[in-house]
Amino acid sequence: MSIVISVNISKTKGVPKEPLEKVIAVKNYGLFGDAHAFKNSNRQVSFLDFDEIMAFNKDLPFGSFAENITVSGLRDESVFVGSIIKIGNTIIKVTQIGKTCHNACNIKKLLGSCIMPKEGIFGVILKGGLIKPNMVVEAINGKDVYNR
């Protein structure tokens, strides 16, 4: 079972995100107030597993890699492009795993390296809702989550 550890947004791109008590996921847009939220974007929301952060550096605050949702246990789930992730009423479709990091990446400059190019999980919001720490994260593969 996976759990939300932290929810994070930033008003500008290329900087660490700030943890919040809760965020609102908006269908086909992203997290309300986040710089990466765009209609019809294939990377409206990003995930990073807490274990990956701990393996990199135990003292980093949540959001350091500009991840929207820090989770525990997601890397233990079978998550792939096309997987459905359900958090409460929010439904997210995984569109990309990893990304190309550009040379001017501020996160890489600040931390010396970045794990999002290999470990980041990106998706689009299929159904909006509230997301906050301690919520259960379900990876649902090949199931019609709208009829559960």
Task: Please describe what this structure looks like.
- With 148 residues, the chain is mainly beta.
- It has one domain (2-142): M1 Pyruvate Kinase, Domain 3, CATH 2.40.33.20.
- It has three helices and eleven strands.
- The protein has helices at 50-56, 106-111, 116-119; strands at residues 2-9, 18-20, 23-26, 30-31, 45-49, 69-72, 84-87, 90-97, 121-127, 129-131, 136-140.
- The strands form two sheets. Strands 1-6-5-9-8-7-11 form a seven-stranded mixed barrel.
- Strand 3 (23-26) and strand 4 form a beta hairpin.
- The radius of gyration is 14 Å and the shape is globular.
- The two termini are 18 Å apart.
- The model is unreliable at 142-148 (pLDDT under 50).
- One of its GO terms (molecular function) is pyridoxal phosphate binding.
- It holds the Pfam family MOSC.
- Residues 18-140 form the MOSC domain.
- It comes from Desulfurella amilsii.
- This is MOSC domain protein.
